[in-house]
Amino acid sequence: MSATILILNGPNLNLLGQRQPEVYGHATLKDVEANCATLGTELGLKVDFRQSNHEGELIDWIQQARGVASGIIINPAAYSHTSVGILDALNMFEAPVLEVHISNIHQRESFRHHSYVTHRADGVIAGMGIEGYTLALRRMATLVV
Ligand code: CA2
Questions:
Q1: What CATH architecture applies to the domain 3-143?
Q2: How far is the centre of ligand 1, averaged over its atoms, from the C-alpha of 90 (Å)?
Q3: Which ligand 1 atom is nearest residue 101's CA?
Q4: Ligand 1 lined by 105 (C-beta under 6 Å)
Q5: 20 to 30 A from 120, CA-CA: which of 42, 73, 98, 139?
């Protein structure tokens, strides 16, 4: 049975492709999901791709992934910079966690330079555009086998 990788997206990422193309590009989250699904098939991984605008829902999904998912890739979006709750939930998840940011958060406003999730993440990708998701999925494939 193939390993399941949970890919989580935080608030406002449902609007990807509709605003600020100079920062985030023109692709939509549906495009990102399709790219991840295609690569997942190639890598023999089952991809479970989700987005929520609600911190508690993201936390519920992380909790439910315990013992079920073989890894989590997360773009926590704005919650990266605010959420100890998401960090705590990830700290209770036993398998690899990779953090993705489409933009280079270190080149932007100082409040984006710190991410709580980075304290738990086994790896972080920032500033690679939406390619960051497939890079993270390739890395995850090397971690879960
Ligand atoms: O660069 C990233 O991926 C971020 O996680 C995106 C977040 C931002 O708060 C983080 O600092 C960095 C913002 C997500 C909002 O996404 C939109 C993109 C385009 C149009 C509308 C929303």
A1: 3-Layer(aba) Sandwich (3.40)
A2: 20
A3: 3
A4: yes
A5: 42
Q: Is 16 in the pocket of ligand 1 (CB under 6 A)?
A: yes
Weakly modelled stretches of the chain, pLDDT under 70: none
The active-site residue, picked from 24, 79, 116, 133, is 24
Instruction: Give helix then strand counts, H and E, for the chain.
Output: 5, 5
Say if ligand 1 is within 6 A of residue 120 CB: no
Q: Angle 125-129-133 (CA atoms, 0-180°, nearest 5)? A: 55
Q: pLDDT tens digits for 34-75?
A: 999 999 999 999 999 999 999 999 999 999 999 999 999 999
For the chain, the structural domain boundaries read 3-143
**92, 59, 7, 5: CA torsion to nearest 10:** 40
Task: Find out whether 85 and 55 touch, Cβ atoms under 8 Å.
Answer: yes
